[in-house]
Amino acid sequence: MFPCSNCGLCCRNIDKVKELNEFDLGNGTCKYLDIFSNFCIIYDTRPDICNIDKMFEKEYKAYFDKKEFYILNANVCNHLQYESGLDKKFKIQIGE
């Protein structure tokens, strides 16, 4: 399972993902993000695109091995965190 640090930044930047347009509050934040806990209130039924493991199995396992896919996703996550000035305690580390 992908080691999400629950920083909530992916859910605050959904305007960059066309498949999530209907979930956008209009400011890039998902309408299902609990902004106090950074947890998804529809986590168990969230769209596949919000589930890294499901997307790996469904779309990307033919192109990457799982660790490589996790590293790519962690890099995007860490970039969002860096750009937002988020505390480094949230950084995702894969096999480091």
Task: Let me know the average pLDDT.
Answer: 94
Beta fraction of the residues? under 5%
Structure classification? mainly alpha
Distance between the termini: 16 Å
**What best-fitting shape do the alpha-carbon axes yield?**
globular
Extract low-pLDDT stretches.
none
Number of strands: 2
Strand order of the largest sheet: 1-2
Oligomer: single chain
Question: Which percent bin holds the helix content?
Answer: 25-40%
Query: What is the alpha-carbon Rg in Å?
Result: 13 Å
Q: Main beta sheet: strand number and arrangement?
A: 2 strands, antiparallel
Order of secondary-structure elements? EEHH
Number of helices: 2
Which helices and strands occur, and which strands form pairs?
Elements: E1 33-34, E2 39-40, H1 52-60, H2 66-84
Antiparallel strand pairs: 1-2
Report on this model:
This protein is mostly helical. 29% of the residues lie in helices and 4% in strands. The chain has two helices and two strands. The chain has helices at 52-60, 66-84; strands at residues 33-34, 39-40. The radius of gyration is 13 Å and the shape is globular.
Summarize the structure.
This protein is mainly alpha-helical.
Features:
about 100 residues, mainly alpha, two-stranded antiparallel ribbon, 2 helices, 2 strands, about 30% helix, globular
